[in-house]
Amino acid sequence: MGIVEEAHNLKVVGSGEQIIVLAHGFGSDQSLWKQLVPHLVNEYRVVLFDNIGAGTTNPEYFDFERYSTLEGYAYDVLAILEELQIQSCIFVGHSVSAMIGAIASITRPDLFSKLILINGSPRYLNDADYYGGFEQEDLDQLFEAMKSNYKAWCSGFAPLAVGGDMDSVAVQEFSRTLFNMRPDIALSVAQTIFQVDLRQILCHVTVPCHILQSIKDLAVPVVVSEYLHQNLGSESIVEVMTSDGHLPQLSSPDIVVPVLLRHIRFNIAT
Fold this sequence. Notes:
It is built from 10 helices and 7 strands. The protein starts with a helix and ends in a 5-residue tail after the last helix. α4 packs antiparallel against α7 and α5 (150-162) runs antiparallel to α6. The chain is 40% helix and 16% strand. The chain is an alpha/beta fold.
């Protein structure tokens, strides 16, 4: 087993000529996709992996400097594609991985036939002419809460992020994967994500983008999906789903899985 394979808990399942890469967001791991994968394996080869820093990965691999920018994760994606000798894929990125996929596609557009971006955001902080959903004070409070009592923060953040009932299976699942992260790594990753500003790179994306967004999402307001649509350099399409929460493939698979399958199978009409 190679270092890339081992570090990311790399798995390839299914059969088919087309390859789909599934990339999870903050606080989760590849188990996030368990409701989707069974619908793909008869038609596609599906690549699953964990971002370095996820609770399922070896914390020794987490380089605080490398992962202080999203480029570190984008280089990981390219290393995974190289390891598996993938020459073209459909990349499905959730949350921060939507932007990680966008960065990777700017470096190597030839490796991506399209990007499917689920609840992604180029910037979480509000700005003079931009609504990201958070003020700096909100983020400072969030980071302080993570520092002071990580377990308590997880218990409070999980139901807010997932939406819906506090006792739901989806909330319990996200709480579990969130709490599995080492607290200092979780804080570092959260700071990198929430302080990011990738607005200036969007015009350099040339790969077609399918932007999927929950109607109600604590982390990403619906207007952000329209901002992406207007500012991406490539052809793009937006679909706002009736799902609630930032992890809709976990909390509303009955809504999200059919939408995802449609966007995987069909290209943007030109």
